[in-house]
Amino acid sequence: MTSKEIRELSIGEIETKLRETRELLVQLRLRKHTGQVEKPHLLRVYRKDIARLETALTQKKSAKTAA
Q1: Is domain 3-66 in CATH 1.10.287, yes or no?
Q2: Nearest to 45 by CA among 12, 5, 2, 7
Q3: pTM score, two decimals?
Q4: Residue 67's pLDDT is what?
Q5: Cα–Cα distance between 52 and 58 in angstroms, integer?
C-alpha cells in the first residue's frame, strides 16, 4: 500500500489492515524457515507496510486527540 492510500483509511480500517499484514508476515516467516518461500522480497514489503500503517495510525490518533 502507498502512504496516500493509507491516509485515506479510517482508524478502524488501519488497525484491521495492520493486523492482517502482521499475520501475513508471520506466515511468511514460518514458510521461510521451512524453505517454502517463492517470493522472499515480500518480507521487506510487509515490514515497510506495517511501518507505514503504524505511522499513519499514530498521526491520526494524535490529530484526533489534539482536535
Answers
A1: yes
A2: 2
A3: 0.91
A4: 79
A5: 10
